[in-house]
């Protein structure tokens, strides 16, 4: 579809910016400028959107890895399932224990890290 700041059917990214603009006067001013000056440089092309999304994803991943590295106890879980296109994929999840010594709390947390595309699935039989 074609994304437009003034269109009724914008993509998720533009709609998210519109939501942020309701609470952020700087973003509101930027979106208003975009509407009043069509064709102007906005830095919201699909390439820029993908770069923003990648930066946010790497920041979240860094925070998760920091928390996981601090944990004394953790477990890694993998599960394989076909996606909507019937391609086999494996999910990677980490469960870890977050201990806050100052607040005297212990919380078990679980974080989904992503999907890994698998190319073939084999079943092994263990012999005893």
Q: Tags for this entry?
A:
37% helix, DUF4371, DUF4371 domain-containing protein, 3 helices, 128 residues, 27% strand, alpha+beta
Q: What can you see in these coordinates?
A:
There is one protein chain. The chain is an alpha+beta fold and 128 residues long. The model has no long low-confidence stretch (mean pLDDT 83). It has three helices and three strands, in the order H-H-H-E-E-E. Helix 1 crosses helix 2. It comes from Phrynocephalus forsythii. It holds the Pfam family DUF4371. This is DUF4371 domain-containing protein. Residues 1-120 form the DUF4371 domain.
Radius of gyration: 22 Å
Order of helices and strands: HHHEEE
> What is the mean pLDDT?
83
* Residue fraction in strands: 25-35%
Any low-confidence stretches, pLDDT <50, length ≥5? none
Global geometry: flat
- Give the end-to-end Cα distance, rounded to a whole number of Å: 57 Å
Which structural class best describes the helix and strand composition? alpha+beta
Mind summarizing the main beta sheet? 3 strands, antiparallel
| Count of DSSP-assigned helices | 3
Total number of β-strand segments?
3
Largest sheet: spatial strand order: 1-2-3
């Amino acid at each position: 579809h074609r994304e437009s700041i003034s269109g009724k059917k914008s993509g998720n990214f533009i709609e998210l910016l519109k939501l942020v603009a309701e609470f952020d006067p700087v973003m509101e001013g930027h979106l208003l400028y975009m509407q009043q000056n069509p064709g102007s440089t906005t830095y919201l092309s699909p390439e820029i959107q993908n770069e923003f999304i990648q930066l946010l994803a790497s920041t979240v991943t860094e925070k998760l890895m920091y928390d996981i590295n601090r944990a004394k106890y953790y477990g890694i879980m993998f599960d394989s399932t076909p996606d909507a296109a019937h391609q086999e994929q494996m999910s990677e999840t980490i469960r870890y224990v977050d201990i806050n010594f100052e607040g005297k709390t212990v919380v078990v947390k679980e974080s989904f890290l992503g999907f890994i595309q698998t190319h073939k699935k084999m079943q092994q039989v263990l012999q005893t």
